[in-house]
Amino acid sequence: MELPLVNVSTCELRFVIRFFTTKNETAVNIHRNLVTVYGEGCMSIQMVRRWRSWFLEGRQNLYDDERSGRPVTATDNAAVAAVRNVMEADRRVTINEIMIRLPPGIEIGRSSIGTIMLDVLNFRKVCAIWFPPFLEIHRRDGDQLFSPIVTGDESWVHQSTAETKRQSMVWKKPEEGVPKKAKFTISAGKVMAIAFWDCKGVFFIDYLSPNTTVNAARYCEVLTKLRTAIKRKHPGPWSRKVLLVHDNARPHAARTTQTLLENFKWEIFTHPSYSPELAPSDFHLFPALKLHLGGNLFANDDEVQAEANHWLRRQDTAWYNSGIKKLLQRQIEIKKNAYITPNGIYEFQVMPFGLCNAPATFERMMDKILKELNYLNDIVLPLNIKKCIFGTKLIRVFGHLSYDNGIYPDPENIEAIAKFPTPR
Predict the structure, then answer these.
(1) Which residue numbers delimit the Mos1 transposase HTH domain (predicted)?
(2) CB 3.0 to 4.6 Å from 153: which of 31, 145, 279, 334, for a disulfide?
């Protein structure tokens, strides 16, 4: 049996109706033949009767007649020119405002204006992209912008840190085996390091005492020490022209911290998102420091602090300057992967295929949402009893049966495949 024809034009169907009409076929027989050749839905029996009666009356034209009514004038040259003039005068104009501002004699509807804007003039209305003031200032002042920038952040420094794969690479001959190394875990002994620096070097390094954390009060003490260090290193008016770059962590964004910075008359690097890693320390200073400490084992916190201080002091001005300039490129590229949530705008600081700090990010999010609650003990998640199974050794899921001793295909699916009819 031949398959029905597809993608058939309406004129072809009407030609077939006219052919059978000249042979005195009834409308029912004509429709049956159309369905046999062209398939169901090609044309209804009512439409076949209508065209058969028209052909019996002597109609020869297979095309639709021109419809009466108002001629199409909404997209003529005059209307298009009028809409273009109004739009180019004000790119923020709305369609309703365009209707009001059209000159006398141009009377077109709202839908016609939208058709002209989208299809004829090929315009699309988009929202403006947030452009950091930092980039605008750089366009104006060039690299002089980097001089007053002071950036800092805090991070854990461990007494023992695993070396990276690249650090463990060695040369070997073809007949030699691949060297092996023991599994290395990060030690529990660690100290919180706080570092502030600019394009020329380190201003201030501080370490928290054991069993302490960074809160608003502690961070204000650090900022006060930083101010003293800046005045000592750069006495004069420059110490008051500070552009502070730090992230949006809670101690940094607290009211007491903001009040202290206002008293210092320091300018704060503004950023619209809550992203936790905004400071160059997160993507330049601390990763390089931890890479240097990788594979080393220190006996106590004092040795870790001494080695960290020695390494930071040993870096030249060019290294610190390159870290500050990375901030410019990140601000250019970072908006491309921003996303909006009900709580604000977030931006990925690394490639969004996986978050290396996912556990800490989750903990920080839950602490912010639930605040004082212990979400593992105090929050009881509601369960849908109809979807829950308790005390069973068998679960049917995704076409398989999950037993306590393994997973096997569902016998019902096997039976359905075995009884599947043989294709002809």
Answers:
(1) 13-51
(2) 279
